[in-house]
Fold each of these.
Amino acid sequence: MTRDDAKHSPATVVGSEPAGDAWMTAMRRGDFATAWSIADDVLAARLARGETCWHLPRHQQWLWTGAPLEGRHVLVHCYHGLGDTLQFVRFARALRRRAARVTLWVQPALLPLVATAPGVDAVIPLGDGAPGIARDVDIESMELSHALRIRPDRLADTVPYLVPPPRDPKLPPASDRRRIGFVWRAGGWDPARSVPTAAVAALFDRLAKNDHIEAFSLQRGLPADETQNLRATDIGTDDVCLTAARMRALDLVVSVDTMAAHLAGALGVPCVTLLREACDWRWGDTGERTPWYSSMRLLRTPPGGDWADVITTLEQLLHPSTVGRPTEAVPEQTSGGHVGQRHLPPCPSAHAHPRGRDRSDDIRTT
């Protein structure tokens, strides 16, 4: 596993190569059953050796020992990134159908939002030291899918599973133009996930000439000299619940692989996620759809290509002529470097938000 893979993988399989690499390969191809079998073997071997992990960084600590969950008070530790927590909190509902009580020990920034997830009985702020509550079973949030033997075929049916508290998004008055929010910079620990601000600024300049689109920046954490001349309305905030309210007021969110993409997906907000060629295991290796989020579409850097290719495809997707059409042929760089054609499904619409009945109970386990 690379450093990136290890940071955003369940600690059960981190540091267990070659098993960890085999687990990641299985997850990339959507073979969850094989991945859980690999994780079973790794966990059993670690327990047999009496291996401990408390000396490791939190995100590398495996907590679940295979202990039964039925009728227990389960404490879910959220030791990975904010996006990982938002992605895996969906499993609280399936966990609660087995456990007597589910408590999340979660990043403070997410407390009011994840408290709305089905199956969550209580939330306490994650901090240094011990959680300070009595419980029967400890498990890390990214271990839930293994412990519950989740199957991929109905993952997206749980969306949306977060309902932010009512907030005024405090956006400019609505117009006839499609409102699109952008996030292009990921965390500093992995700059390869980020699109250069200069490229995004040029995109905003072109979109400003489009009478059908209104661009908004949801980006946080950039120096002022990078953002002061951007032709997009700045609506970025560190308040996650306010960000959620603003996303729900937009027609589309465009994000790189960072917390914002998971937030939009968990809310059921139409989202386009921009991925580099060597992307994280959860997005697979090919395809424009993901089983994790029904409202999300993936745009990948083509083999040998760069972010300019992704932005070109994105612009064609956002063009008014593509909106509402069943399919639209747009150029695609094939693996041989030649320009071909592919048929894209229609760009997600705000009118198609999957906010019907709660289908969280439909998630399948084995």
Amino acid sequence: MNLKDLRILLKKLRGGVIVLFSLALLTSALFTRVAYARDSTEFEHPDYIEVELLATRYPLGPDRRPDTTKPKYESVVAKFKIHRTTAELIDCIYTGNENQFSADVNPHNGDDDWQFVIYAPANEPGGIANKMTYRCREIPTPGFTSQIKTDDNGVFHLTNTRKLGTINWTKLDAKTSEKIGGSEWLITGADGFSKKVVDNGENDEDPEIGSLKVSGFAWGVKKDTQNMWGTYALKETKAPKGYTIDENTYTFEFNENSDFDTPIFVGEIKDGRIPGELAWTKVAAENSELLGGSEWLLAGENGFLKTVVDNGENDEDPALGSLKVTGLEWGSYTLNETKAPEGYEINPETHTFDLTNTHLSAVLDPISNKKIPETPKPPKDTPKTPKTPKKTPKRKTVTKRIKKSALPQTGDNSYVPFVTGAGVIVLLAGLGLQQARKNS
């Protein structure tokens, strides 16, 4: 609307009032007007707004004149729908006098610069000299907030601001449902939009660990691409330490009818725990060589018990003397040897360790065993116990008479052997008798 059009409208008014409006993001030099703005010129605004015209006046008396003894009151007297190039009256309380309320729009309005004029009577229709003063307010446009101010010239300034969306979600331990920190995320949308979110870091507006909040999500048609914005996807890119990443993609959407006062809760997103593992070796105490054949008992919290046999039950290390157990829940454990390798003593020590999200793998120091001492063997040449000798039989003494003529004579050597032999016989007989007495 140019100045010439405005003069024509003033001539047509005939005692009424003109309420000047303009909705603009950009500045115009046509005349003083309101500013109609959005949060960004990147997105198209709906092609109309609705406004209400409110009038303040005295109640009418029986004579239809203002009753000045009563206080003035205000009420909505008319409603208008303002399009980019046209305007229409959609409601009026003064039936039969609707023609006194009208609006004109500048035909040269741009996408971000709307100007319009509302015409209204100076006095209340149906009354006599009941002067009315006016103000205007915008009927809220879905998805926008509205502010109206009046300048010193009585021109109303309307400002519309696009509401932006907010989301929040939590990251939980799948086992305990407790909140856990340290996750990272990526939010993507139309036209290559992406935003990185780090728990208690980049773009996270919630100070609590495990609770995340992000705002500023636009919606509507983007002017340069004509693509519709408002649908977004959330995906975890880094899990908290010790947890498996959630592979799901979570979508959320904003449009003009969204409840922008309440964040969209994407959900309780849970991550599972990465199981822990234990490794150890069994060695000989004398030379630290690996020993196979040991058996063990692994005990944990809540009554957990597991038998481990080297290269057998629950051992996942194929090397003899090296043992490994996986799939262990986080917590405190004890390990005890229940059977030693053949020829070795059991190690009586109890070995303890803990598994946590920051310590998923426990490696124990080598566990040594001593050899079983050997039992001494008896010597090969053992002296035999002497046998008890048999009793020697008593000997009979035999006396032999010798004839005198048989006795040797002096100097006769032929009888020497005989005498000697007889002496020996007598001596032996004496010795035998003595031995027999001892035995008896």
Amino acid sequence: MAARTLGTLVGTLALVGLAACGSGDSGSGGTGDSGAAPKIGVFLPLTGENAENGQQINDAIELRVQQVNEGGGIDGEEIELVVRDDRGEPRTATNIAREFAEDDDIIAVLGSFTSTASMAAAPILDTAGIPHLSPTSSHPEFTTMGDAIFRGTPTQNLEATGIAAHLFENLGHSSTAVIYRQDDWGNSAADAFAEGAEASGGEVVASEAVAPESRDFRTLISSLRGTDADSLYLALHYSDAAVLAEQLAASGWDPTVITATSLYTAELINLGQDAVNDWIVPAFFYAESKDEHVQEFVAAFEEAHGEKPDAFGAVGYDTMSVVVEALGSVEEYGTQGREPLGQAIYDVEVDGVTGTMQFDEQGDVEKTITWLAIEDGQFVPAAE
């Protein structure tokens, strides 16, 4: 991948813009099955260590549905959401998927936040023929697990290699250490970053996995400080990363820190405070963008929820917008509408707050990454 400050990456979800569908106009299609309303299952971590991320996505999905229903719904039928808390646990996600699969009224499912939970649910939903859209699952194998599985974020094969190219080719670093979360997502991020580093002429001098919810990184920091690394790449979630940041600052070691897109969240700054200043954070959405579509979405989200959306909220909004757009072309809801809806999602081409997207045959779409830095407790555009 050619290195640049804004790098085009491939994800898996076509997205609908606020301006394109903020009025609630969802097309001229389906009248539903015997008058039944379109029913969408949603499963996300609403409690547990990723609750903030899951809540952002859920809030944005509910905002989009509220806009559609207030605008007349889908040909007069209001969308119904069935929301479940998977706590980020694959076993819980599996149970929820079974519940959704047994509900003949559910036409599509959105979830989860983590690749691990999304992949646990995928075979069950695929067997039931239910289109499955995860806003944020980036494990490369996720969309290969069925016929109508989509993601709203680039695979780690693309994201992490692009981050490596930026670090070594644009920023001029020569060596790095990797700290990654020991789960499906973290493993794929670390592997892809290592491949990208090699392709970009950089060296990964150490790569260390940490268990989810780890709280003591001091021995690890001391060990990595003894290497030749002039930078750190972090594939972590905010709860882990904030603790690492405090202990890294206390150690006196000051490498350049570059992160996965998972850390573009206000919770990182809220928890990490000054310790995360100067970190470099990639994002597929920037709430301070001057783009009119983005600002309309940000204003609506703030009015509804009293805070600004992050990238997870934005892609959750766009994911729901894709379903809204595709629902307009199906003739029936429930079980009879599942296969037509899956095909319609592949055919969608729309403009979203995270960019203009269109699916390829695997369910992938192009996205553009923006490089941000943390300065004085704020995300700001990084210097080129």
